[in-house]
Specification:
Blueprint: E1 4-9, H1 15-19, H2 24-33, E2 36-39, E3 44-49, H3 51-65, H4 70-73, E4 81-87, H5 95-106, H6 111-120, E5 123-127, E6 130-136, H7 140-151, H8 156-176
Antiparallel strand pairs: 1-3, 2-3, 4-6, 5-6
Length: 178
């Protein structure tokens, strides 16, 4: 088996979350993915393992680096789950517009973010200049569309209605075994 190395940089303030108390989180990720992880204090993470395991571990580390808890990031071990990252730089031209857009996705007291998460059974992290999603891959296009609708100025009620319609389709597909 050929060994590969993946390197990723995460924010310094997320290094402790990746490592965990006494290295517990890092060790758990290594055991579950059959990889070896090295982390520098500056946030450079080196991952060694076979190509798929190293790639998967990189996704988990990226999710932790973008604000998810290790428990949520480990959902990516399930082949039905994926990680999507939306760069707010593509939407915001100024610092004020960046703050406003983050606020639209989060909503008052976190209501918009929570509503989207509940309707789609997914997790959303608004961190730095990104919005990240962990969810079932079959639901990702609708989740991404919902967030992009909010970023482009759609009313929250319109977005929720679209997701409720999608949820009906997902439930029907589950009942029919599709």
């Amino acid at each position: 088996m050929e060994e590969y190395e993946q390197v990723i940089k995460i924010p310094k303030e997320r290094v402790a979350v990746l490592i965990g108390v006494k290295g517990k989180t890092k060790k758990e990720i290594e055991e579950k993915t059959n990889t070896k992880i090295r982390v520098s204090k500056e946030g450079e993470v080196s991952i060694r393992g076979d190509s798929f395991d190293a790639w998967l571990t990189k996704q988990i580390v990226k999710a932790i680096g973008r604000g998810f808890s290790p428990e949520k990031a480990l959902l990516l071990l399930d082949e039905n789950y994926g990680l999507e990252i939306i760069e707010l730089r593509d939407w915001a031209k100024t610092k004020n517009s960046l703050t406003r857009l983050k606020g639209r996705v989060i909503g008052e007291k976190g209501k918009a973010k929570r509503t989207i998460e509940n309707l789609t059974e997914s997790y959303i992290s608004v961190y730095g200049k990104t919005i990240c999603i962990i969810g079932e891959t079959r639901k990702m296009p609708a989740i991404r569309r919902a967030i992009e609708m909010l970023l482009s100025g759609s009313r929250h009620a319109t977005v929720y209605r679209m997701l409720e319609n999608e949820r009906k389709i997902w439930r029907r597909q589950e009942l029919l075994g599709e």
